[in-house]
């Protein structure tokens, strides 16, 4: 008998639950099923603390009956993190939890209408334009000046979260946290408030191992002594660069009476990743709580092309932060035209109408496309290596030409190269005509498509957001831990892990 995706998720959830230090009783599971349809309808309403609505008495009564969690999502304020976590949150709402993304007021515009609530943390430093200023720093992360500015900007954002979140989460009555792995404020505040938390890995796994290069470098996997020494040096430089963030986080940890050791940033309950195991470099020391997975996505509307001229389609994207690079987009669309294909460009709002219309090759250009719908119609993709777009391309079985620019993109490109799903072209070479031969190769050599299709099969079996939510539900299922956030623990003791 074949099982559907939800049945598979329930079975895997039960399997995970059997390995946790608590049990979910059959009677409790039955109560969940009986009340699930009523509660899900209530949970889709906006949440307390949101600008959209207030909690109803019925919602509070139902939540108390089934002891469902009020889960806060703490993440960087960018679409690449908010979108997959909103999909995960939607699946958690469908299991009966209440889920709220908590951040700057301006972040509400990033949160899709999907049943997940939003609450601004109402702090004096939360001013209009703060998010736009942060984006300007992220958009220019290269070079000594740009890199330093970006790191300091990220440290300031984390410090603002550390200042504002304890009061905000207490006000909202949050009793659990889903913490994005790249934002250290989430787990630290969870420990401060003695709240259970799980780690959500929306990008590459950041766990450090001697044989795995630092996650922001495009080095190949090399587990021998030479590779280990190289990696060790890379981590030393990375630690030096990241000191503004790590020093500030350690200062708050000590102020709150917590051990500042970075290993406490990772949940002992569950570390759940979008990344499929086959895409990552081989790991030798993953924690028992770590789980690979597949893309966390919500259903998107069908994408109908407004003008199909019969040429094969190539999806071209630089993400939402790097989409203002008109010259690089021009190199992409020209390469597509040279191989007899048509570019489908997603510029994330970075190009003006004039710039969009001036791109060569008569491309189809929009700020955004429904990626999960348009990519299956494409023969290949030219991407900067942003993790979500890479996952969507692989899920569609589409081979890639990767042009990494910043952040973890070089490391993602190195992994794509290793599995044979992509050719990697530097941004400098892309501007000198390097895209056309790379694109011809991935279109003509079937091995690239076969590698992408193999990843697509693995990711489809991973269960996506529904499977991830089932594991989060199991990891946070301890009844005795359901307690709203409070700044003063009853026993006055400092917590070292949650």
What does this structure look like?
The protein is of the alpha/beta class and 498 residues long. 44% of the residues lie in helices and 11% in strands. It contains 18 helices and 13 strands.
Question: How are the strands of the largest sheet arranged?
Answer: 3-2-1-4-5-6-7
Roughly what percent helix?
40-55%
Main structural class: alpha/beta
Number of strands: 13
Beta-strand portion reads 5-15%
The gross shape turns out to be globular
In short:
It is built from 18 helices and 13 strands. It is an alpha/beta fold and 498 residues long. It is globular and about 60 Å long.
Which helices and strands occur, and which strands form pairs?
Blueprint: H1 5-18, H2 26-43, H3 57-66, E1 70-74, H4 79-94, E2 98-103, E3 117-120, H5 130-138, H6 143-172, E4 176-180, H7 185-192, E5 197-201, H8 225-241, H9 243-255, E6 271-273, E7 290-291, E8 313-317, H10 326-338, E9 342-346, H11 353-357, E10 364-366, H12 371-374, E11 380-383, H13 387-395, E12 400-402, H14 409-419, E13 422-424, H15 427-430, H16 435-444, H17 446-462, H18 464-475
Parallel strand pairs: 1-2, 1-4, 2-3, 4-5, 5-6, 6-7, 8-9, 8-11, 9-10, 11-12, 12-13
Helix pairs in contact: 1-18, 2-3, 4-18, 6-7, 6-9, 10-16
